[in-house]
Amino acid sequence: MIGLARIGFVGMTHLGLVSAIAAATKGRNVVCFDQSETLIDDLVAGRFPVSEPGLENAAAEHRAQIFFTSDLRSLESCDIVYLSADVPTDSAGNSDLNPILDHFRLIKRSVNQSAIVVILCQVPPGFTRSLEFDKSRLIYQVETLVFGRALERATSPERFIVGSSDSNQPLPDTLLEFLDSFGCPVLHMSYESAELTKIAINLFLISSISTTNMLSDVCERIGATWADIIPALRLDARIGPHAYLTPGLGIGGGNLERDVTTIRHIGEHTGAAVNLADIWMTNSNNRKTWVTQVIKNMFPTDWTEKHVCVLGLAYKENTASTKNSPALELLRAFKGAKITVHDPVVLIDQDEYDVRQASTALEAASGADVVAIMTPWPQYQELNSEMLEDVMSGTLLIDPFGVMSSSDVARTSLKYITLGCALN
C-alpha cells in the first residue's frame, strides 16, 4: 500500500503556484520552494503575484497543507519534486532555458535518492533526455494550463501526458498514485513525444485561431456574418462542438508564440517543412492591428485628434498578463493622441504609454470619440450602452469580441463594430 506522496514544487511563478495549490486540493502536503525570500514572504502573507479565479480562496482553504519556503533543504522530504518555474520568452517567442537549468541544478543536489523529479515547465524536444540525472527517476509532464482558467484545468485535467526515458517500462508507482488522484487518463510516451505533444496541442489551437480569424475577415468584407456560420461548423463531427471558433485579435501571452518559434527552429535544424508557422504569425500580426485600422478608416484625415478610450489591457480576460497584448499595440499606434484606459486588474505605466488610467470604465469613456473594448472582461458585459452613449463625445464603439449585446447597442445612436460582421 503506497502512502500519500509529499509533493514539492520548485519555482513559484504562475505554473508552480497553480500546480501546487491544485495538488493541495487533492489532499496532498506540498512544499512550495522559491529562491526569492521576498516572494515567499508575500505568499505566506497571502499576497499572490498572479491573478487567477479561485486561486487565493483555494490556497486559504488548504493552507494547512501548503508550506512556502526558500529553504532548499525542505525538498529532501519530498517523494516527488516538480520543476515548475515558468520559462521566460522574448518578444519573438524564444525561450530562455538558463533559469530552468539553474533550478534543475538546485533540485539535483537537494532531493533524496528515491525522489522522482518531474519537468513540468515547457521545454523543447530533447531537453529532458539531455539532463544528467537517473533517467528511471526523471519524468517530463505536459502542462496544459490556460491563463484565466488555470486552477480549473489544474484540478480537473482532461488527461495527463507524461514522458519517460523508456515508455515500455511502467511509470513509478508513487507518481502514478498521485496522478490517479485526479481521475483522468494518463498517456505515457517517450520524453520527445511528450515534449512535442505540448507543442502539437498549441499548434492545432493556433491553426483554429488563424482559420477563424481569416474567415471572420472575409465575412466583414463580403457582408456575411461569422456568428451565422459557427453553428454549422460545430455540428460537423470532423470539427466538433468544442472547436475554437471565436474570432480574435491574434495570439498573445507568449506561450503560443513560443511554440511557433520552437517548431520553426526544429524545421531549420531538421529540414522539416514547417512554413505553415510563418503564415500563422503573419495572420496573428495582421489581426493585432485590426482595431487600429478600423479607427483610421473611420477617421482617415483626423484620427490623431480623436480621444480614444481603451477598455482592457490584458491580452485576455481573467489574467494580468499583457505580453503581446493587442491593447498595447493600439496604445503604441495612437501614441500622441488623447487616450484613456481602464482594466480591472492591470496597472499600466501611464508615462511610458502617454495615457491616463481611469478607475472605472465609464470614467475612461467620458468624452471619448471612440471606445474600444480590447479585453473581454466579464465586468464589461455590465456596461449599459445608453450610459456609455451619454458620457461619450463621439459614437464609435468597437467591440471585437462581442462583449456587449448588439441588440442593446442598437437602441442607441452608437456605431457598433465587432469581428466577423460587415464593416459599414
Short characterization:
The protein has 17 helices and 14 strands. The protein has helices spanning 14-25, 37-44, 55-61, 98-108, 127-130, 150-155, 173-180, 191-222, 226-234, 255-270, 276-288, 290-298, 326-333, 350-353, 361-365, 385-391, 406-409, and strands at residues 7-10, 30-33, 66-69, 80-83, 116-119, 138-141, 160-164, 186-190, 307-311, 338-342, 356-357, 370-373, 396-398, 415-417.
Describe the structure.
With 424 residues, this protein is α/β, with parallel strands linked by helices. The chain folds into three domains: 7-191, 3-Layer(aba) Sandwich (Rossmann fold), CATH 3.40.50; 199-286, N-(1-d-carboxylethyl)-l-norvaline Dehydrogenase, domain 2 (Orthogonal Bundle); 289-417, Rossmann fold (3-Layer(aba) Sandwich), CATH 3.40.50.720. It has helices at 14-25, 37-44, 55-61, 98-108, 127-130, 150-155, 173-180, 191-222, 226-234, 255-270, 276-288, 290-298, 326-333, 350-353, 361-365, 385-391, 406-409; strands at 7-10, 30-33, 66-69, 80-83, 116-119, 138-141, 160-164, 186-190, 307-311, 338-342, 356-357, 370-373, 396-398, 415-417. It has an eight-stranded mixed β-sheet with strand order 3-2-1-4-5-6-7-8, sandwiched between helices. α8 crosses α10 (255-270), α8 (191-222) crosses α11 (276-288) and α10 packs antiparallel against α11. The chain is globular. The mean pLDDT is 93.
